[in-house]
Design brief:
The complex is a heterotrimer.
Chain A lengths: L1 E5 L8 H10 L21 E6 L5 E6 L8 H5 L5 E3 L6 E3 L9 H5 L6 E2 L8 E2 L5 H4 L6 H5 L5 E4 L1 H14 L18 E4 L18 H42 L1
Chain B lengths: L4 E5 L2 E5 L1 H23 L15 H26 L6 H25 L8 H4 L6 H27 L3 H31 L17 H28 L5 H28 L3 H4 L4 H21 L7 H23 L13 H24 L19 H13 L1
Antiparallel strand pairs in B: 1-2
Chain C lengths: L1 H26 L39 E3 L9 H9 L21 H5 L5 E3 L3 H9 L4 E6 L20 H11 L3 E4 H22 L6 E2 L4 H10 L13 H16 L7 E7 L3 H7 L4 E2 L2 E2 L3 E4 H10 L21 H4 L6 H15 L5 H4 L10 E8 L3 E9 L1 H14 L6 E5 L20 H17 L9 H11 L5 H7 L7 H4 L2
Parallel strand pairs in C: 3-4, 3-6, 5-12, 6-9, 11-12
Antiparallel strand pairs in C: 1-2, 7-8, 10-11
Helix pairs in contact in C: 6-8, 6-12
The chains are: A alpha+beta, B mainly alpha, C alpha/beta.
Amino acid sequence: MAVLVDITKCIGCESCSVACKLYNELDFKSKPRNGADELDDNRWTVIQQHTTRKERIRFVKKQCLHCKEPACASACFSKAIQKDEKTGAVVYYPDLCVGCRYCLVACPYAIPKYQWDKQFPQVAKCQMCESRLEHGDAPACVSACPTGALTSGSRDELLAKAHQIIASDSRYVNHIYGEHEVGGAEWLYISDVPFEELGFKQVSDTPVTQYTKNYLSKVPGMAAAWALFLAGLTYYNHRCDKNKKSDDDKK
Amino acid sequence: MKAYKCFRILGWDFTITPTRFVLTGLVLLMAATVVLRLLTGFQYVTNLTDETPWGMWIAFDVMCGVALAGGGYSTALLVSMFRYEKYAVVARGALLTSLLGYILVMAGLFLDIGQWFNFWRPFVSWGYTSVLFEVFWCVSIYTTILSIEFFEIITERVLTKQLHRYIVRILPVLVVIGLVFPVMHQSSLGGLFLIMKERMFPLWWSEFLPLYFLMSSFFIGSAMVAVETSLAKTAYGHEIPHHIMVELTRVGGRIMIIYLLMKIYDLFTMDQWGYVFQGSLQSNMYCAEMLFGIIIPIMIIFSPLARSKTGLLTYAWLTVLGVIFNRLNCVFTSMYESGAYFPGIGEFIVSMGLISLGVLIYCFLVENFNIIGNERAVQIKIDKDKDIKNLIWALLKRKKR
Amino acid sequence: MSNNLSRRKFLKVVAGSGLVGFGAMVTGCKGDSPDGRGWIPDQYQGKGDFPVNLKGRVAIAASNPSIERDDEKCILCGQCIEACQNVMAVYGNYPLPLKMEVACVNCGQCAMWCPSGAITEKRSIREVAAALDDESKFVVVQTAPATKVSLGEEFGMEPGSIVNEKQVGALKALGFDAVFDTCFSADLTIMEEASEFVHRLTSAKDEIPHLTSCCPGWVKYCEYFYPELMHNLSTCKSPQSMLGAVIKSYYAQKNNLKPENIVSVSIMPCTAKKFEAARGEMEVDGQRDTDLVLTTRELAVLLKHRGIDLNTVPDAQYDSILGESTGAGRIFGATGGVTEAAVRTAYFMVTGSNPPAALLNWQPVRGLTAVKEAAADIPGAGTVNIAVCHGLKNARELLDGIKKQGSSKWQFIEFMACPGGCIGGGGQPKSTVAAQPEARLKRIAAIYREDVNAPKRCSHENSEIQAVYKEFFGSPLSKKAEKYLHTTYTNRHDRLFD
């Protein structure tokens, strides 16, 4: 399941963020921890207003992009964040969470937030309403969008749709944010304004998990080689000691 | 006249000096803070935010603690494997520092995790794609190994001689295992940062990060041994021949040169010279780190300056601080965006308390077991009149009478 | 021996925990994720792009001077969109992508429709209370015609109850230094607007059709969507701003008050009046025409806070010299009222005599028909064709028709943004039948009762109006009148359209 965000259609009504709070029972009264239009543990999605170079206003919905190669899930050492095979949602399971916050620093977009004022804090991020996806429903935010800025469907279909929109309307920039960014994401954005003007982070197409994978794949071999080398050395030293001892004895 | 108090309880020596009195106070203060932290979460004790989710406890206590404790494995490697037997005099001290370092690191980590009652999860729920998973297992196993190795020293004095014999017998195996795991996790600590490519300032991120961390843990290890021995000398009057220390640190110095060359190679291949001279906060911090933490120490250690004790000590301190600086830069400076973070009082109290606890345990152990120079240490004299705390002890003593 | 044992034990522990972990991994034992224990409205259960009747809500910018929304109360029912799109024809009538702002004419109908009270006017109650408590300020207040037939509903009275004198009594009890009647300035507006209309009819034919300008929601709508008609808008300020300008000039002068010490408050049935009061144009010689605007609902809140019950408060009369009103001024609150009042005085201006009884009870312009058409025979000026339109969706249809034909068959068109006119304004008391016409019809009936009960029926008969002209303005459309009573408009088309 994927979502296509057409930034040109967003009017900033924030139906999505209210639907999110309703469905996920987040606190409406909580003081914004990182600024009124930034994510925090009670704001899993926010609308951010940007003024472009041409003095146009644009609203950008910010939430977890649900990467295809999620850095957070890869970074979690207790599997408390997992990518759901069926729905594609990157889901957090608090029961498994130790609270190391590696996911917060690993995410290329700095999306996961933390419940800093809780006694036993947990990570907070968009779950893509996985419980709704399981029933074939759209995420709450998508359901409530009045202008059609949000559409949900299969990623391939939405990608095709996005490409078709871009091809048929010259106002759109020829870039689907989320198609390739750090390996691609379930959330896709199209816009008539270059993404860097809208606060989108410019990231490379290589999934960051790649570097970890490369490294970890070498570790067992290297460790084994190192251990063998050390064992050999120990044995050699041992032999030397013995010879020396016997030499001494002979003397 | 002796200026410290030494109690002997059931055959164990407990020495109390003014410094240790203060350290005990710090430990008690920490204990109170720890209780507050574990019961109320992070809000009252730390200044952590979503922008700096990793603070002093990770950057200083864990990253630096592990690096400092690297002295244990680097000396062990030289002594046990490469048979530099002349360094054996420092081996036990280094082993003890490593063990204490790791125990304190684990304590720090335990305080830093939000759902601390869940600390055991990674043992059963295997997040094997995470570098942290490797670090977690390696640190756990290595600490166990270190404890068993250290048990050899303990069993010299207590428990059965038979047990001591067994431990001596399996010691070579333990040493091999004990050299595999620290190498793995020292590099993995650098590997932790690999996934943060899009978050870190380019100067600190490199695919060689695991290697950098490993190498720097090696040279901070030997530098730390030098610092420790000089501290131990002030406290216990025990001296290790200067030329041995110079040679030991020069091994680290050689690694340091390779480290510097690789860093420069990185700048060329990733085309990052522009960032170095950008003049921004990050580039300045990077330059400072390289200059004071790497280039100047190299110049000292391979010059005649190293022959003087001050020269060697300067090298050692610069190297230690340089690596600490590097770890802080990796965690904070490289990911600095807008939010300024300064550790909260609680974070300082806990960090200081942990270090104090380490020092106290170290002192107790070296005074009761054959560690420094393979013999038991005795606290040297302190001038009583200079210290008020001693007066308090004197008063207490008088009351008892 | 113990060596072997301990090693085996150690391995056992490691392997055991590993097996448990592997088992947990395979069986997918991971507990619950924290999402999805909450509620969202039934209509959104289903696929997101499935067509449903109502979806989401309208956008309200944080900088909106008229209305605001409490997210916690919002149930995403879509009623605000219904009001904005199908009553006011604002939502959905601006192009996407947005240009410089989200269109809002500040009418407040979304607040009227909102079933959970999430959308409210941006309240000025605190500021008014603070001004009342400030001894150094001379706080004056004016009450709009439509508030007199609706405020009672907030105190348990039937819709259509007339609380004219009681409202004045309540305001005096609150501590206002003077209470004036917006009906007075409605008469003033009629003097100016009728003169202007007669002038346009005879010598400035390109400014025909004459479009009324007393409704700020409509004015902004015109600026947004029909900038080519801006020169047809009457240049007259609305009664609120006219009275404000008169208070800080003529009244201040007569009573030796410094204009900067006067706090001018208005009680309006309207949220757009808050926007109008904040417009850059509504200022003369550095003095804001209106300082603070309270809606009818806010006044009720303020009265209740101060423990004043409208049912028991003693009656009082409006203060002279800006307190007299005629029937013409009083019917401003209902759709068609402005037209009827203007025609009465225009008739007098052209013919020199008061209009016949038929024009004093002019049924074709009354009632809730979307677009009402009428013709007035004014001897000397011929037949004047008139249209009266309320609800901006109706206005859009009417204007699009004119645009299509290229010319208008009407010489005078009255526009009111809200259905029913001011009595159905976005700041009026909410009732269970807010969206239905019953309450509005009752309020309208009350307005016309007020007209019939008035001793004078035409604006030009108002003796205080005559005094203002004699002592201050000279005559309608004089230089001084232009300065204080007329205004200009801002083209807002560019903010929405390329």
